[in-house]
Fold:
Amino acid sequence: MNAEIPLFNTADQLVPLRERLHDAATRVIDSGRYIFGPEVQSFEHEFARFVGAEHAVGVGNGTDALMIALRAVGVEPGDDVVVPSFTFYASAEAIAAVGARPVFCDIDPETFNITAATVEAALTPNTSAVIAVHLFGLPAPMPRLRDLLAPRGIKIVEDAAQAVGARLDGVPAGSLGDAATFSFFPSKNLGAFGDAGIITTGDEAVADTARLLRHHGTTNKQQHTLIGYNSRLDALQAALLRVLLPELEGWNAARRAAADAYEAAGIAEYATPQTIPEGSEPVHHLYVVSHDEPEATIAALRERGVEARGYYRTPVHLQPPMVRWAEGAELPGTTAASASNIALPISPVITTRQVEAVVAALAAA
Ligand SMILES: Cc1ncc(COP(=O)(O)O)c(C=O)c1O
Structure:
């Protein structure tokens, strides 16, 4: 289907940047420096500054970022790591991939995020870390999570894949936990031209370990001190991301304006939008509402030229490779959210008229 109003639009925003993107790509191609080098270093500095973190370590993608960050904060094979089930599969997959055990916690179906209470209910004597996913671009309640977890020595890794540029009480996602991970998958708010990701942290030791892990456990390819990965951020992606990063605040502001336009158009009469707690500045990677009849509504919207989609209909703990870690898990908030959510079109280039058309289609549906 070619929807008149697509769910995403990440192409139009690149049109004015075309020449600068081509120049950046040419610069890297002509430099002969494709792995590490000045573009990667500069992007790491610029991104660290953007999220107010001391250190940024570029890696191959957001999933590797999670695996590397978990190990860098000290997660060992056999440890328990708490993670929401209502998230993209990779949030939990990374835990299993480092030999730890995912312990699934519930979410608040109004914010779609974990809470201190849902995390506390999932803690075990073996819990060494919690993955705080900032779902759909809304920060998880980090101060309450820190109050719960810091006294117990449990680390928090922010999964900020969907939340680049989001803030909580003025503090950017990426400096709210012990480490944070980002994905630059092309459809993300800051999307590369292929796979890319980054880890941020305020802890130098965590950054040093992450740098080792992304590069075969070595700094010099002679002495290897860890079993690591080959997961580097390409120089080409770094150079292109350097062109995009200065645009991100504007793009995120446009997404927030679109969310405001949904509210002004009366979305709440027809569906329940994600609750945005006081002090949160989300970036609306997706604009997600809850609805009593999601599938029929999605079909009716499609008939009216509006693309819409349910997210994570099968939550992670019910995915076949995960069920062995989810025995007896009761996650009512997750069940409700996964069954009832609808993502509606949002992007930096969506117009107020298009938003009004979506709400009108929803009213008619
Ligand atoms: C919440 C979340 N975590 C992790 C990832 C994994 O990122 P990547 O696709 O770059 O590996 C994604 C996106 O794909 C995501 O949305």
